[in-house]
Design goal:
Layout (H helix, E strand, L loop, with lengths): L4 E6 L6 H12 L3 E3 H11 L2 H12 L5 H12 L7 E5 L5 H13 L6 E6 L2 H15 L6 H15 L2 H6 L4 E5 L4 H14 L7
Parallel strand pairs: 1-3, 1-4, 2-3, 4-5
Helix pairs in contact: 1-9, 2-3, 4-5, 6-7
Length: 198
């Protein structure tokens, strides 16, 4: 059985946040809400949303905030997210933080913790290059990778300041084995009273 947890995982592209997010969410029994995955599924499925966002995501640019926030609000309104969720890739700038705050406050909820996976830029680039070889993602070209990391540093990293003043950021060393990193996250969440049983 699990405790409810409302989590956000943040880190540069290539930090392993997707992989860690899935592990953490599974342990807590909460759904992962990944905006990148939602966009990719729509592009693959040829939906109107997919058509709207395919060029934007291939360039490594951000999808418009209002559209992205609407998608997240819809997803978080589904039953399986009532007791918690793990957000991956959203919010990604200060405007989106505002949108999420408004939505959660309206439901009498708040994020419990923001997990920051800390990985040096060189290491992120190297991991992304390997992933590009393995998976052939459209936005894993050298230019798009550099562009996405720039957006991360300029727009996403500052949201940590906004959450930092609330005292909910856990900075986790993202270099190590998958299991080591997962254990570091669990240890940090346990300090907040967010525990996985067994
Ligand atoms: P990710 O898998 O999280 O790196 O997301 C892949 C791409 O989807 C990003 O490079 C953006 O083009 C788009 N995307 C994902 N999340 C967001 C977001 N919160 N706001 C705007 N665009 C996003």
């Amino acid at each position: 059985m699990t405790a409810s947890a409302r989590l956000l995982i943040v880190g540069p592209q290539g930090s392993g946040k997707g992989t860690q997010g899935v592990r953490i969410a599974e342990a807590f029994g909460i759904p992962v809400v990944s905006t990148g995955d939602i966009f990719r599924a729509n592009i693959k499925g040829g939906t109107p949303l997919g058509a709207q966002v395919s060029e934007i995501t291939a360039r490594g640019d951000l999808v418009p905030d209002e559209l992205t926030s609407e998608i997240v609000r819809d997803r978080l309104s589904q039953d399986d997210a009532a007791n918690g969720f793990l957000l991956d890739g959203y919010p990604r700038n200060s405007v989106q933080v505002g949108h999420l705050d408004e939505f959660l406050t309206g439901r009498g909820e708040a994020l419990d913790a923001v997990i920051l996976l800390d990985v040096p830029r060189d290491e992120s680039i190297e991991r992304l290059r390997l992933r590009a070889e393995e998976q052939g993602r459209a936005d894993d070209t050298t230019e798009a990778i550099a562009h996405r990391l720039d957006i991360y540093e300029n727009e996403t990293a500052p949201i940590l300041g906004m959450y930092g003043v609330r005292g909910i950021v856990d900075k986790i060393d993202g270099v190590g084995s998958l299991d080591e990193i997962t254990e570091r996250v669990f240890a940090a969440l346990a300090v907040r009273g967010l525990r996985v049983e067994n």
